[in-house]
C-alpha cells in the first residue's frame, strides 16, 4: 500500500514576484521564528529623560547615561517574557495584559503604536539576516521569473532576479533605543528577575545594509530608477513611504525622504553583488527562513495561499472591496490602504 506525500508546487518559470508582497511574507515568517523575543510582551515605554518605573536607572547600561546620548532623543522599552509560554507573542498579543505604562500612566496603544515597538524588537540586529534571506530567495527563483517592485510614489521596476545589488552604508540613528527584557524568577525568590539589555543607535555609526533592485540607469542618484528594498527600517524608528514596516522606495526617495527622517548618513557607500555571510548563526536561520518563504511563494503562484498584503499572514479571506483581488486582515485594512490605494486596480 503506497501513501501519497504532499509536495510543494514548483514556482512557474514566468512567475512575477511582487516585492512588496514578498516583504510582508518574509517578515511574517521572521516574526514566527525569531529567537530573541518570542514570548516577550511590552509593559512600559519611556521617551526622553523621564525615569522608567519598572527598573531603577542604576541598572541600565552605562551608555544610557553618557552625556552624548543624554543630549539626543532617547526611547526605552521594557518587555516581560515568559519562557514557559507555549504560544509566540504576536502584534495582537504584544501589549502586556495590564496595559503599557508611560510617563502619563498606563494606556492602551493603537495598532500602529504597538507595531512600531513590535517590529523594532523583531528587527533588532537582523539587518544582514533579512537581507541575506531576500537575496537567497531571489537566487532561488527561476532565471526567467521577474521581480516587480512598486513603490508608494507609483514608481515601478520590473527586473530579473539577478539584477539585484547589495548596498552597505554607515548611518547614525537620530534616536538612541534601549530595550530591556525582564523575566520573573520565582525559583530564586518572590522579587527576583533576570534582565537583558539591547541597545541600538548609541555609537557614532551603525553599519546598514539594503538591496537595490533593477538595472542601474545612471550614476546620478536622482536619475537612477533602481528601488531600495530595506527590511529592517523600524529598528531605527522608521517606516516605508506607504507606512509599511519596511521600505520599498526609489533610491532618491529612500535616502532623502524615508531614511533621512530617522538617521544621518555617512560617506561610505559600498556596492557588491552578494552578501557573504560567514557566521553560522546567520546562515542557519537564514536558510530555514528561505525555505519557508519559497514554500509560500510557490503556493501563492498556484492560488493556494491567500495572504494579507500588509502583514503577510496566510489564510486571510477578506478582500479589498474595490479591486476584489488583494486580501487583508480586518485589523490591517486601514494600515495597508495608504500603499494599496496607489496600485489598487
From TrEMBL:
GO molecular function: zinc ion binding
Keyword list, A-Z: Metal-binding, Zinc, Zinc-finger
Cited InterPro entries: Znf_MYND
Residue intervals of the MYND-type domain: 308-344
Listed name of the protein: MYND-type domain-containing protein
Organism lineage: Eukaryota, Fungi, Dikarya, Basidiomycota, Agaricomycotina
Amino acid at each position: 500500500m503506497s501513501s501519497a506525500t504532499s509536495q510543494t508546487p514548483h514556482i512557474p518559470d514566468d512567475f512575477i514576484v511582487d516585492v512588496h508582497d514578498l516583504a510582508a511574507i518574509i517578515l511574517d515568517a521572521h516574526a514566527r521564528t525569531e529567537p530573541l523575543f518570542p514570548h516577550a510582551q511590552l509593559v512600559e515605554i519611556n521617551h526622553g529623560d523621564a525615569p522608567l518605573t519598572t527598573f531603577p536607572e542604576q541598572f541600565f547600561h552605562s551608555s544610557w547615561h553618557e552625556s552624548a546620548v543624554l543630549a539626543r532623543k532617547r526611547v526605552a522599552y521594557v518587555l516581560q517574557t515568559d519562557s514557559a509560554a507555549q504560544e509566540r507573542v504576536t502584534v495582537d498579543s504584544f501589549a502586556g495584559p495590564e496595559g503599557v505604562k508611560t510617563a502619563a500612566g498606563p494606556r492602551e496603544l493603537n495598532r500602529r503604536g504597538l507595531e512600531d515597538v513590535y517590529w523594532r524588537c523583531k528587527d533588532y540586529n537582523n539587518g544582514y539576516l533579512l537581507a541575506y534571506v531576500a537575496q537567497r530567495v531571489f537566487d532561488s527563483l527561476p532565471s526567467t521569473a521577474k521581480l516587480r517592485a512598486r513603490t508608494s510614489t507609483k514608481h515601478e521596476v520590473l527586473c530579473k532576479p539577478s539584477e539585484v545589488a547589495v548596498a552597505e552604508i554607515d548611518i547614525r540613528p537620530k534616536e538612541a533605543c534601549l530595550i530591556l527584557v525582564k523575566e520573573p524568577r520565582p525559583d530564586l525568590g518572590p522579587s527576583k528577575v533576570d534582565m537583558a539589555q539591547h541597545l541600538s543607535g548609541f555609537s557614532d555609526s551603525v553599519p546598514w545594509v539594503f538591496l537595490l533592485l533593477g538595472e542601474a540607469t545612471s550614476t546620478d542618484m536622482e536619475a537612477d530608477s533602481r528601488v531600495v528594498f530595506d527590511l529592517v527600517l523600524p529598528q531605527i524608528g522608521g517606516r516605508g513611504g506607504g507606512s509599511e514596516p519596511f521600505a520599498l522606495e526609489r533610491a532618491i526617495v529612500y535616502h532623502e525622504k524615508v531614511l533621512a527622517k530617522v538617521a544621518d548618513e555617512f560617506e561610505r557607500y559600498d556596492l557588491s553583488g552578494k552578501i557573504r555571510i560567514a557566521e553560522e548563526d546567520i546562515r542557519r536561520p537564514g536558510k530555514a527562513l528561505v525555505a519557508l518563504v519559497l514554500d509560500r511563494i510557490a503556493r501563492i503562484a498556484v492560488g493556494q495561499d491567500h495572504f494579507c498584503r500588509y502583514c503577510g499572514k496566510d489564510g486571510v479571506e477578506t478582500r479589498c472591496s474595490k479591486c476584489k483581488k488583494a486580501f487583508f486582515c480586518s485589523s490591517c485594512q486601514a494600515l495597508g490602504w495608504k500603499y494599496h490605494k496607489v496600485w489598487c486596480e
